[in-house]
Amino acid sequence: MAEEEPKLMAVEEPKGLDYIPEVILKKRKNRDELAFIRKKQLELGNFGKKKKKVADIKRPEDFVLEFRAKEVDLIRMKQRVKRPKSSPAPINSNLVFIIRIQGKNDMHPKTKKVLNSMQLRSTFTGVFAKATDGLFQKLLKVQPYVTYGYPSDKSVKDLIFKKGYTIIEGNPVPLTDNNIIEQALGEHGIFCIEDLVNEISRVGVHFREVMRFLGPLKLNKPEAGVLRGKKQVFSDGGDTGNREDKINDLIIKMN
């Protein structure tokens, strides 16, 4: 009997990957992004929160860019402090007025901590401070987000009379009644708003108590063109840093 020839197993040829046109891949990406945004909108709606616009909802790549910006901010802060030319500016006045003009999501937490320590928690707020080497070192750390200078007596008076307030039981109360000032600062010889202005202007012995009494001044957003959004220092044509007595011009436009 003739031997049967062994049957050869058919070997299937490997199939290549299906070609997917680029147009379809883009459509899939857009569809996935829209699904992600819709999911966030539904989550916000279910919890009764204010609805956000599509542009306000962050995509994963937005978080990456924000993280990188914060790291760059920290590196630049360290570089500013270490530079030989970053020694504190000569003090031309005992009083400094500081305005926060920039800064949002691109700030490193350490930068935000310094701003918060000066009560500059939001843009277009201003505070008075005693001029010291320590203060100028702080300002150097947050230089891209603030501008400052030496306010005149008139600027101090105009700011306090128009924007001055204190916090009572968690609520801002304008300084329209001298009784409020007397109750809080009478023991220090400050009985009225004129006494308050005088103590700030001359940086008196009870300056610190006055600053604790006052809330950070909420200034008006300046008209277009006054601030150009440049983080370079004022002396180089930017918006930030020391304006010296030129701060009075900015105060007029924001008060």
TrEMBL record:
Domain Large ribosomal subunit protein uL30 N-terminal eukaryotes: 20-85
Keyword Nucleotide-binding: no
Domain of life per record: Eukaryota
Pfam families per record: Ribosomal_L30 (PF00327), Ribosomal_L30_N (PF08079)
This protein's record includes keyword Ribosomal protein: yes
Keywords: Ribonucleoprotein, Ribosomal protein
InterPro entries named in the record: Ribo_uL30_ferredoxin-like_sf, Ribosomal_uL30, Ribosomal_uL30_euk, Ribosomal_uL30_euk_arc, Ribosomal_uL30_ferredoxin-like, Ribosomal_uL30_N_euk
Residue ranges annotated for the Large ribosomal subunit protein uL30-like ferredoxin-like fold domain, each copy included: 96-146
SUPFAM superfamilies: Ribosomal protein L30p/L7e
Protein family (similarity comment): Belongs to the universal ribosomal protein uL30 family.
Protein name: 60S ribosomal protein L7-1
